[in-house]
Amino acid sequence: MGTLMTLGSIVLPDDMRTLTGWQAVSCERSDEVRAEHLDKTVRSSLTDLDGRFGGPVIFTEWATADGRPLLRDYRWGAAERPCEHYEPEGGARYADHV
Q: I need a labelling partner for 50 at 20 to 30 A (CA). Which of 7, 70, 81, 97 fits?
C-alpha cells in the first residue's frame, strides 16, 4: 500500500488506483476547480498510453500551492471511457479551509 496523506480528518491514499476519500465530479466541476486555483501544482502524474501498467491512461493529481490534494484527473485511452475526475470528499473548497 502507498503512503497516506491527510486533509483535515480525511485520509487520502497516494496510490492513483485507490479512490478512498475521493468523490467523483463532472468534467465541468473539474474545469471549475482548476480555474479557481490558478496557483495549483501537479502533485503526481503518470502517462501510460501503451497500457503497460493497466489500461491506457493519463493521470494527473493536482494540489494547492501548499500541497493539499485538490483534484484527480484520469484521461483514458478509450472512446467509451474518455475521462473521470475526482475531488477530496467535502469538495475542493474544503482544501482551502483546512
A: 70
